[in-house]
Amino acid sequence: MPIHHVNLDDQSSLRDVYATNTSERSLPKFRIPEQRTEPHAAYSLVRDELLLDGNARQNLATFCTTWVDDEVKQLMTDAVDKNMIDKDEYPQTAEIENRCVHILADLWHAQKSWETVGCSTTGSSEAAMLGGLALKWKWRQRREAEGKDTSKPNIVTGPVQICWKKFARYFDVEIREVPLEGEALGLQPEDLRKYCDENTIGVVATLGVTFTGIYEPVEALACELDALERDLGLDIPIHVDAASGGFIAPFIQRDLVWDFQIERVRSINASGHKYGLAPLGVGWIIWASKEDLPEDLIFYVDYLGGNMPTFALNFSRPGGEIIAQYYNFLRLGRDGYTAVQQACADTARWLGAKLANIGPFEMVYNGHGGLPAVAYKLTDADHGFTLYDLSERLRMRGWQIASYPLPSNRQETVVQRILIRHGVSRDLAHLLLDDIKRAISHLSQNPVPHSTAKPGFHHG
What broad class of enzyme is this (predicted)? Predict the structure, then answer.
């Protein structure tokens, strides 16, 4: 019979979390602790700190997914040890990524969706940069073949998310961000002749402008570029930044022509973790054909067990988000995505109509024709408060609502934007509306003559 000894000093399983040595002092901030901490105590203390974060479901400034079902959470747990880049070790995860690429290519009307190329990324920002790199390389190849200078590439955009400015700076491309003229909220066809030239590697059209939620007119932009080619011989491709709209338009705006149906659209990026409904950490970039991705940009890695092609700015990254994206395609199908996105759009339009009837507001975007979102500004009257004050007041109830100035030429216009995503029900929108009314009433009765409120973080 074995003899078991009892360690009377070891009472870790009996000790209350808040009576441990670690709980009786501040958690380390600058140096790793010398001693270990019991797992349940470490977990509880870290979790307690996270309670100070905002409630993600009330964050209506972010485009990103804040609600996932239990099956997605389980799949993420199942895949926590899968490295997406190691395709030889995890061939089925690689196959699932490949399926998603072809599903998206088909969704976006690629002519031969089963043959086109694309990949997952850590988000739409990386995907956009990969699309920009392909445009630059293709432009440079054409210029070199013609014996022309390749030192001054530029890219023409409307009001874009910060990732495009990063792309321009990191990869030495001049960004020509067209200022907003008149009442315009995005890039217009008539802007192109003034800003495009022989050094333009491409035009970025945004399907869901970060600042307002509107769609830029991709088909009309393509028609103007066709005219530009006829008149000046400039063959300029379009990249569509469909970070959010790429998962909206195919389901609830099916008559809109914006994707690979347009010959001039050569690449599209989208965020799986925005209206694609996947958890945070996955974006997608798809090219119209294999010829649109220069071979020089593809690297072949042979030290992971096989000779694997890769084109990405990141290397090791988790596979769970890609698996969850495929689960959503399987779980929801076209019918399910349509139902979810239509419900979001209906709620946004309902909210837009209600906000239009509130005295201080003038609608900038009412939720029709673009993303499930609304944007509004204060009327010209002196209300005794700013939209920044209103954002701060709403935050007292947990709501995170973005307020900020519009881009150049309209920066004197401050707007407030509310995004309606999966999980933001009509009931939640109604509670938000009530809180907005109460906040306006309070601020009207208690003016802020010397307000110091500033723009807060607004996720694009």
Answer: lyase
